[in-house]
Design a protein that fits this description.
There is one protein chain. The chain has 128 residues and is mostly helical. It is built from four helices and no strands. Helix 2 packs across helix 4. It starts with 7 loop residues before the first helix and ends in a 14-residue tail after the last helix.
């Protein structure tokens, strides 16, 4: 299989679609956020995939800005009771964090693959 590496745009689109970062055909997940061991299509070993807490942090920051901004606008404009705030904002919090989490995690994994990210290493230097 001699194919050119994907462009940055292709890698990002493959990540958002939760597809293999190399071939774009195989699935990345076997469960909601459980990664497969390898690609079904091209055989890419997914052992390198480690997005850590990055996707969750991005989603928390984005969702926080959306929900807090909306809650402040509603509070200032209408001053509803607190129970109505809970009814309004809890579903929005769940929708803005859980729904895009799979795609965000897969996007970060695809970008890791595209940029050939690897763990940091110390450089051995001779004493001066």
């Amino acid at each position: 299989m001699n194919q050119s590496p994907p462009t940055l745009t292709e890698s990002a689109l493959r990540g958002i679609a939760c597809k293999c970062p190399r071939c774009g055909k195989g699935k990345v997940y076997s469960g909601f956020l459980t990664l497969r061991p390898a690609c079904d299509s091209c055989g890419l070993d997914y052992a390198f995939m480690d997005s850590g807490d990055g996707p969750a942090i991005f989603m928390i920051m984005i969702a926080g800005a959306i929900v807090v901004g909306a809650a402040l606008i509603v509070e200032i404009k209408y001053q509803p009771p607190f129970w109505l705030h809970a009814v309004l904002w809890l579903p929005l919090i769940l929708a803005t964090t859980l729904l895009p989490l799979r795609s965000m995690k897969s996007l970060l994994i695809a970008l890791q693959y595209h940029h050939k990210a690897a763990p940091g290493r110390l450089i051995d230097r001779a004493p001066k």
